[in-house]
């Protein structure tokens, strides 16, 4: 017959013994305390929770190497602007490649980032930023920086 529970206790959902509310596992039967997990998720503060998404929801087969394209195209934009003064033909070609490549790189890399980190980048927002003249250089750099911050690589 289980004894009465105290104020800081609950009855174990498995064996019915009174256990501490803060206990992660029941010491009597070894079953996980369901209420403990509920309590710990509630402990996450609201502003933090806003940014938490479940990466497993976004499972993807997209490779992690798309950031190379993001990096390369950001660099190409810079090279294009430098080259414009001396060799316009080559600069235009570079712009075309970078203009197409950057959104593609960001688009696919975002899928990887979303599935593998806590950062959930805004697809439309980043795509728009990545195609606007001049802005896309900054967007590319900020993207790579944020990616580095969240994933730690590269
Ligand atoms: Zn128990």
> Alpha-carbon distance between the termini?
59 Å
Poorly predicted sequence stretches spanning 5 or more consecutive residues: 45-50
Number of domains: 2
Radius of gyration over all CA atoms, rounded: 25 Å
- How many E strands? 2
Provide the structure class: mainly alpha
| Residue share in β-strands | under 5%
- Count of DSSP H/I helices: 6
Strand order of the largest sheet: 1-2
Q: Based on CA inertia axes, which overall geometry fits?
A: rod-shaped
The run of helices and strands is: EEHHHHHH
Biggest sheet, in brief?
2 strands, antiparallel
Give the helix proportion (percent range): 55-70%
Ligands bound, unique? zinc ion
Q: What does this protein look like?
A:
This protein has helices at residues 34-42, 46-49, 66-83, 88-116, 123-131, 135-151, and strands at 9-11, 18-20. It is mainly α and 154 residues long. It folds into two domains: 9-43, no CATH class; 56-151, no CATH class. Strands 1-2 form a two-stranded antiparallel ribbon. A hairpin with a 6-residue loop joins strand 1 and strand 2. The longest helix has 29 residues, at 88-116. The radius of gyration is 25 Å and the shape is rod-shaped. The termini are far apart. The chain binds zinc ion (ZN). Zinc ion binds next to loops.
Please specify the SSE layout and strand pairing.
Layout: E1 9-11, E2 18-20, H1 34-42, H2 46-49, H3 66-83, H4 88-116, H5 123-131, H6 135-151
Antiparallel strand pairs: 1-2
Helix pairs in contact: 3-4, 3-6, 4-5, 4-6, 5-6
Bound molecules: zinc ion (ZN).
